[in-house]
């Protein structure tokens, strides 16, 4: 019986659902397998969103700037390094985050993010 549950887990892994709003206001629900080990920037690029991510996820450029529109209460706190970069953005708000600093995990469930970073 236990192997059946394991098989179900492998074939139907738990999914994390969150919404992305693009620069034009279009929203799309993304479903990402739990435990995928990627950050939000990597998921956005893999999902063909127009996001620069110039520094490759090192929190140096802020081109993966997103804004948390809804939810996000369970997201990890902004680090000092992330805050330093966000402080350089004229359009940053108290809900701004760097997508490269947000690991896709259950804390993201139900959150809505708006893409704010530069286009390429």
UniProtKB/TrEMBL annotation:
Named cofactor requirement(s): [2Fe-2S] cluster
InterPro entries: 2Fe-2S_ferredoxin-like_sf (IPR036010), 2Fe-2S_ferredoxin-type (IPR001041), Adrenodoxin-like (IPR001055), Beta-grasp_dom_sf (IPR012675)
GO terms for MF: 2 iron, 2 sulfur cluster binding; electron transfer activity; metal ion binding
Residue ranges annotated for the 2Fe-2S ferredoxin-type domain, each copy included: 14-119
Any Pfam family the entry gives: Fer2
GO BP terms in the entry: P450-containing electron transport chain
Signal peptide: none
Keyword tags: 2Fe-2S, Iron, Iron-sulfur, Metal-binding
The family this protein is said to belong to: Belongs to the adrenodoxin/putidaredoxin family.
UniProt protein name: Ferredoxin
Lineage: Bacteria, Pseudomonadati, Bacteroidota, Cytophagia, Cytophagales
């Amino acid at each position: 019986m236990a192997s059946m549950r394991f098989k179900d887990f492998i074939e139907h892994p738990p999914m994390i659902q969150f919404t992305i709003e693009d620069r034009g206001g279009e929203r799309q629900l993304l479903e990402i397998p739990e435990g995928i080990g990627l950050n939000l920037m990597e998921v956005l690029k893999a999902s063909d969103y127009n996001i620069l991510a110039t520094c490759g996820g090192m929190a140096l450029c802020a081109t993966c700037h997103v804004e948390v529109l809804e939810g996000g209460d369970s997201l990890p706190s902004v680090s000092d390094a992330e805050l330093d970069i966000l402080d350089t953005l004229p359009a940053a708000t108290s809900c701004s985050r760097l997508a490269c600093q947000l690991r896709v995990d259950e804390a993201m469930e139900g959150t809505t993010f708006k893409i704010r970073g530069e286009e390429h």
